[in-house]
Amino acid sequence: MTESTIWWLLAGGAVAVELVTGTFYLLMLAIGLAAGAIAAHMGFGLSVQLVVAAVLGAGTVVVWHLQRGREPGRQPASSNSDVQQDIGATVQVDTWNADGTATVAYRGALWTAIPAPGLALQPGAHRVKEVVGNRFVLEKI
């Protein structure tokens, strides 16, 4: 078996393991293994193949890791409008109860609402900031 075949088998194995585990970093390492196979096809010696595979594989892992570090952190599901369709909706608070809650009508049902931290209990229009359990967390508009 030629050296390039071994490199291609290793690259294919890394992709197969990635498909099973979902570890995207293995795809980056497979790029390095494929680069080692290309170096073998070009006739370079084993030491050059190893260096090419290591540099390219590690380089893509580092680049991917740095790219992921630049992404903003994910919001919790309770305040993520992609998860909760009610976030950003406008509701009318007529009165606040003594315990700091209010009952608001929204989408044909009555909901319990609580104020966002630091919000004064004032009646009027509010926006749903977060959904915690079956309660709306409101902010004043």
Please outline what is shown here.
This protein is of the alpha+beta class and 141 residues long.
Describe the structure.
The structure is a single chain. With 141 residues, the protein is an alpha+beta fold. It has three helices and five strands; from the N terminus they run H-H-H-E-E-E-E-E. The protein has a five-stranded mixed beta sheet with strand order 1-4-5-3-2, with no helix packed on it. A hairpin with a 2-residue loop joins strand 4 (124-132) and strand 5. The radius of gyration is 27 Å and the shape is rod-shaped. The model has no long low-confidence stretch (mean pLDDT 90).
Strand order of the largest sheet: 1-4-5-3-2
Counted beta strands:
5
Determine the number of helices (DSSP H or I, runs of at least 4 residues). 3
Report on the biggest sheet: 5 strands, mixed
| Rg from Cα | 27 Å
Instruction: Please tell me what the overall shape is.
Output: rod-shaped
What is the string of helix and strand elements? HHHEEEEE
% residues in beta strands: 15-25%
Unreliable segments of 5+ consecutive residues: none
Structural class: alpha+beta
- Terminal CA distance: 71 Å
